[in-house]
């Protein structure tokens, strides 16, 4: 595991019981997504390769797990005032969807560069979408809504959000009890941290491998520096991995639980996306398909009897994005 310099005792990190509590809390609102073994990928990687198909989750990505866990914990008064979120992708839809199901008001600040399919879906779920010039501008403006009484639902730097994302790890343990390796993408680090916590609290021997894409490698930069690093800009095509910086909480979890973070190119993520579509018949987004690119890079770390799970965390990609990636 990666050595770390953060004093984890000062951070509000989730524990295994938080994840188990989250699983029970959110069960009526989320989908238990399928997990399959792929013969084609097993031959390619030289191990038993399984796919956690989280693109079949409500709203098309894992984010609803954390959003529901955070929002279900609000008091009646907090629910009456509503929630606010900042996102350029899947978190926006998750908060909007959860708010509709829980009959709450939701405001989502989104940069105007956000792909149209994300903007439309967020609005269609009933949220009020406020466009900003940049993601940084959205983050600066969110405090105005907090001052008016809205609860800020952070996409990853929140104990309840991380615990909610970790419920995906419990499902992996149910379906592949002899799992040896899990490969999961890293944006802000909430999914990777939550899944790692859930799995390693039960099976400490399981190796957790993080993945980022070039131009969105905020966790790799933070791990190398030993502290949170803000990228000057995010340039990767995998925009749902586009957190300019991770949080101290998610960095601490990565330092504690991840074997490494593999950084792959946009081109390799798109090649993997096409391969998954053509050979496995599932459509992912680059933030998901990058796990296959990483698995190929890491294949010498696995044995023929290894049980490797790739977390395909979402599938919200527009047709024009696929066409641009193929150009």
Descriptive report:
It is built from 14 helices and 10 strands. α9 (190-200) links the parallel β7 and β8 (207-213). The protein has 2 domains: 8-61 and 158-326, Rossmann fold; 63-152, 3-Layer(aba) Sandwich (Rossmann fold), CATH 3.40.50. By secondary structure, it is an alpha/beta fold. Residues 3-9 have low confidence and may be disordered. The strands form 2 sheets. It has a 6-stranded mixed beta sheet with strand order 1-2-10-7-8-9, sandwiched between helices. α1 (16-26) packs across α8 and α9 (190-200) crosses α11 (248-257).
Q: What is the secondary structure topology, with strand pairs?
A:
Blueprint: H1 16-26, E1 35-37, H2 39-45, E2 48-53, H3 63-72, H4 76-81, E3 83-86, H5 90-101, E4 106-111, H6 116-124, E5 128-132, H7 135-147, E6 151-152, H8 159-175, E7 181-185, H9 190-200, E8 207-213, H10 218-225, H11 248-257, E9 258-264, H12 266-280, H13 286-297, E10 307-312, H14 319-326
Parallel strand pairs: 2-10, 3-4, 3-6, 4-5, 7-8, 7-10, 8-9
Antiparallel strand pairs: 1-2
Helix pairs in contact: 1-8, 3-5, 3-8, 5-6, 8-9, 9-11, 12-13
């Amino acid at each position: 595991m990666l050595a770390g310099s953060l004093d984890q005792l000062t951070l509000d990190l989730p524990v295994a019981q938080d994840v188990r509590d989250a699983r029970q809390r959110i069960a009526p609102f989320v989908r238990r997504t399928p997990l399959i073994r792929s013969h084609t990928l097993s031959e390619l990687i030289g191990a038993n390769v399984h796919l956690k198909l989280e693109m079949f989750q409500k709203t098309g990505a894992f984010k609803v797990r954390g959003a529901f866990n955070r929002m279900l914990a609000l008091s009646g008064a907090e629910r009456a005032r509503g929630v606010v979120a900042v996102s350029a992708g899947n978190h926006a839809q998750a908060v909007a969807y959860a708010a509709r199901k829980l009959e709450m008001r939701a405001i989502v600040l989104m940069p105007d560069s956000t792909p149209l399919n994300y903007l439309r879906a967020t609005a269609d779920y009933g949220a009020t979408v406020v466009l900003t010039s940049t993601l940084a501008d959205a983050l600066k403006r969110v405090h105005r809504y907090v001052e008016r009484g809205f609860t800020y639902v952070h996409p990853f730097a929140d104990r309840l959000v991380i615990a909610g994302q970790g419920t995906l790890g419990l499902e992996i343990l149910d379906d592949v009890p002899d799992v040896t390796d899990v490969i999961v993408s890293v944006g802000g680090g909430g999914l990777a941290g939550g899944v790692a916590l859930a799995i390693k609290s039960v099976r400490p021997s399981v190796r957790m491998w993080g993945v980022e894409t070039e131009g969105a490698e905020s966790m790799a930069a933070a791990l190398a520096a030993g502290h949170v690093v803000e990228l000057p800009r995010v340039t990767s095509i995998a925009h749902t991995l586009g957190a300019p910086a991770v949080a101290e909480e998610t960095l601490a979890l990565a330092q504690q639980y991840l074997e490494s973070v593999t950084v792959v190119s946009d081109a390799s993520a798109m090649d993997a996306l096409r391969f998954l579509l053509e050979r496995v018949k599932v459509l992912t987004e680059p933030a998901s398909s990058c796990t296959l690119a990483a698995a190929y890079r890491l294949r010498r770390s696995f044995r023929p009897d290894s049980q490797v799970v790739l977390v395909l965390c979402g599938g919200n990609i527009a047709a024009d994005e696929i066409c641009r990636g193929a150009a």
